[in-house]
Amino acid sequence: MNILPEILWRMPDEYVYLTFDDGPDSAITPALLRLLAEFQIPVTFFVIGKKVEQHPGILAKIQAAGHAIGNHSFSHTVMTWKSRLDIERELTQTDKVILRTTGKTATLFRPPHGRFGPNLLRSLRAVNRKMVLWNHSTKDYRATTTTRQIQSRLHTVRPGQIVLLHDGHANSGRMLTALKNALPDLLERKVKFKALPC
C-alpha cells in the first residue's frame, strides 16, 4: 500500500523495475540500449526535456525498443518549493518534446533528485500523472561510487523493487559496466524484469 496514492515507489509483484534518469545521453544511452537488447530486458527511462531536444533520435530508439518513457522535467530543477506555474512549465515543455518525438504523452513523472512539495503533487493530480520514486538505489549518481559498489547493489535487488539508475550522469560509464557485469548473474538467479506500466 502506498503512503500517498499519487506516489509509486514499489510494485506488488515478482518483477524488478530498472529505471534510468537524466538522459538521453549521446554516449551512454545507445550503449545501454544495446546491452538491454542483448539480454531482452525492458526498462523505464525518465528523460530530461532539454536533452530530448538535443537527441530526439535516441528517444525514438528508446521507444522503438519497447521501453517505457517518463517525464523527468525540462531542466532538472529542484521542484520542492517551485510555484505551480513554474512546475507546469517544466512538465509541459518536456511533454511537448516527448510527444513530438514519440507521438505519445508520458503518464509517469519522476521529480529531479526525488524532491517534491505540495505544489508538485497538486500539479500532477490536476493532469492525472503518477509520480514515481524508488525503493532501491544503486547510488550511481555519487562521484565516489565505484563500479564494484554499483554492481554489488544491483546484486541485492528483490521482487517489487523500483531501482534507481542514471544514463545521463557523469558516473554513468561505471553504471553501464556494473550493469553489464551484474545482468548475467541476475538472470541466472531467475530475476525477472519489467518496464513500469504507463
CATH class: Alpha Beta
Mean pLDDT: 95
Report the CATH topology name.
TIM Barrel
What distance separates the N and C termini?
A: 19 Å
Major beta sheet, specifics?
Answer: 6 strands, parallel
What general form does the structure show?
A: globular
Strand element count: 9
Taken as a percent bin, the fraction of beta residues is 15-25%
Structural class, from secondary structure content? alpha/beta
Uncertain regions: pLDDT < 50 for 5+ in a row? none
Description:
- It is a single chain.
- With 198 residues, this protein is α/β, with parallel strands linked by helices.
- The chain has a single domain, classed as TIM Barrel, CATH 3.20.20.370.
- Helices cover 40% and strands 17% of the residues.
- The chain has 7 helices and 9 strands, in the order E-E-H-E-H-H-E-H-E-H-E-E-H-E-H-E.
- It has helices spanning 28-39, 49-54, 56-64, 84-102, 118-126, 147-154, 172-188, and strands at 7-8, 15-23, 44-47, 68-71, 108-109, 130-132, 136-137, 162-166, 192-193.
- The strands form 2 sheets. Strands 2, 3, 4, 7, 8 and 9 form a 6-stranded parallel β-sheet that branches. A 3-stranded parallel β-sheet has the order 1-6-5, covered by helices on one side.
- Helix 5 links the parallel strand 5 (108-109) and strand 6 (130-132).
- Helix 1 (28-39) packs parallel to helix 7, helix 3 packs across helix 4 and helix 6 packs parallel to helix 7 (172-188).
- The protein is globular.
- The model has no long low-confidence stretch (mean pLDDT 95).
